[in-house]
Amino acid sequence: MEDPEGGPRLQGNGASAAGRKDGKKSRRRKGKRGGHSRNANQSAQHVLSGETGETARPSEAGNVARKRKRRRRGAGAPGEAAQQHHTNNENSVSATPAVRGDTESLPSRRNRRKHRGKRGLQGRPLAHEKAAGHSAQPSQQPSPAARSGAAEQRTGQNDNRAARQSDGGQRSQGEHPWPDELYAALDLGTNNCRLLIAQPTRPGQFRVVDAFSRIVRLGEGLAASGRLSDDAMDRAVDALRVCSSKLKNREIRRMRLIATEACRQASNGAQFLDRVVAETGLELEIIDRETEARLAVSGCSSLVGRETRSVVLFDIGGGSSEIAVIRIGDNRFNRLANHITHWTSLPVGVVTLSERHGGRDVTPDVFEGMVVEVEGMLDSFDCPAIDIGHADDFHLIGTSGTVTTLAGVHLDLPRYDRRKVDGIWLSDDEVSAMQAKLLSWDFESRAANPCIGPDRADLVLAGCAILEAIRRRWPSPRMRVADRGLREGLLTDMMADDGVWRRHRNRRGQRGK
Q1: How far is CA 26 from CA 29, 48, 117, in A?
Q2: Least trusted range by pLDDT, from 29-33, 182-186, 329-333, 367-371
Q3: Are 57 and 5 in contact (CB under 8 A)?
Q4: Quick check: helix, strand or coil at residue 73?
Q5: Phi/psi at 281 (5° precision)
Q6: Exposed/middle/buried for 61, CB within 10 Å: 0-12, 13-18, 19+?
Q7: Do domains 182-289 and 301-483 have the same CATH topology?
Q8: Mean pLDDT of all residues in 45-57
Q9: What is the mean pLDDT of residues 300-318?
Q10: Distance separating alpha carbons of residues 205 and 491, to the nearest angstrom
Q11: Fold designation for 301-483
Q12: Beta strand pairing call for 394-398 and 425-427
């Protein structure tokens, strides 16, 4: 292409054809920075004005392109740039503009070189990359985002720590789906002293952390004297000391300690509880019979299926027996105890009944006499008959040592195993067969059975007599065995009242989101 003034037309902004590509790239980058460099414009004006003549124009234009290239590289040594400039411009007449431009651009090149590792396009600061592979120097300050994240993490840890202190529970340091909020329930009955320490897990369930059970026979001789004997109180206090030690070794969020029929009936029951406080530090409350029946139902609620419409639940204790009639219908409440329509507490248990009739040597006639006595007590229980439409609509639930013993004997266990007994179904014929089997054994045979033992050998047939009276009042084709009772009811009610299952479900939902 010819210049209008007669010379060859230059390509681009005074650059030769060899430097045209670099010139275009340079213009794009400098356009983003807001214009061309002053030195490049001056060099171009020298070339375009024709001051150096026609032969110098290509060389001078090359100088401009090379300066732009040097500015783009920024990190090249000045000596290298000068040597390259001298080699490519051997025939150049005037190198002054190029030298002057290179000298004037050194400070800006140094600044760019100094900050090039810290800035990206458009002058944005780059993220720190050393944290991924190298540890940061102590003098390096974290970015605002990192400081904010660290502050949130510290705040969350403090919040969790405060929550643990206020809740009175323990939490593990690692990630855990359920917090270690511990609950404790103690049941001092006429025959047994039982303790459970548990942690809530899935809704309606909990995991047992520690447990204790000992036969103390607190109600021994109570029916005849009306008082708790000194030996019985000593045995109970010794067991309660063990419970107190277990409770002191753990941080318990909430506990409830109850006493039942023996302390209700005894004339010195209140004095005995004062002694318990003085010697063990445990404060027990005496609950009434209705509360005892409701707790038994709460403890067994998970064993009542959705298809069930009616249930008779009984708890054969040492000094009393609680019976609750439950009608569920179409709408089921979260708490099964809310479906109790009728309940009663019979003033008879395995200890009192065996003491009156003799539990060591029990003949069929003695056994029938015990059944008749309990039937007379049930006759005064005003409860309408239960309508049974289908076989699965109604069944019995037994929660006591009597029914768990029958189940263990039925399974012929070498030693009692709660996991195999709790929740098992027994047909009406199987229950009758087990009662007849136990009645045929003498005291030594019952004591030798691993599921009975010498401590229950004189009590198990009295429990079977109470069970037989209940079966005659409410005939059912099957019975479900529950190795659970008041302690489980206490734990379930406390956890439900505190809303731990609802709170944990909400937390899990938030984590899922």
Answers
A1: 5, 20, 20
A2: 29-33
A3: no
A4: helix
A5: 80, 5
A6: buried
A7: yes
A8: 39
A9: 91
A10: 10
A11: Nucleotidyltransferase; domain 5 (3.30.420)
A12: unpaired
Please tell me the predicted confidence (pLDDT) of residue 331: 78
Gap between the Cα atoms of 187 and 415, Å rounded: 24
Quick check: helix, strand or coil at residue 360? Answer: coil
Say yes or no to pLDDT of 76 above 60.
Answer: no
pLDDT confidence band for 42 (50 / 70 / 90): very low
Residue 384 has a pLDDT of 87
Would the pLDDT of 176 be above 60? no
Nearest to 345 by CA among 379, 304, 315: 315
* Residue appearing with tokens 């783009």: 72
Dist CA 94 CA 83 (whole Å): 16
65 neighbors 23 (Cβ within 8 angstroms): yes
Return the pLDDT at 504: 59
DSSP 93-111: S--HHHHHHHHHTHHHHHH
Nearest to 480 by CA among 446, 436, 430, 439: 430
216 closest CA partner among 485, 455, 484, 486: 455
CA distance 27 to 67: 13
Least confident piece of the model among 47-56, 72-81, 399-408: 47-56
User: Does the domain at residues 182-289 carry the CATH identifier 3.30.420.40?
Assistant: yes
Q: Quick one: pLDDT at residue 69?
A: 64
* pLDDT of 101 higher than 70: no
Residue 512, pLDDT > 90, answer no
What H or E segment, with its residue span, contains residue 224?
A: helix 222-225
Q: H helices within 332-427, ranges in order?
A: 350-357, 364-379, 401-411, 418-421
Residue boundaries of the structural domains of the chain? 17-117, 182-289, 301-483
CA–CA dist 179, 164 (Å, integer): 9
- Tokens representing 337 are 């105890």
146-167: average pLDDT: 33
Please tell me the distance from the alpha carbon of residue 403 to that of residue 314, in angstroms, as a whole number: 10
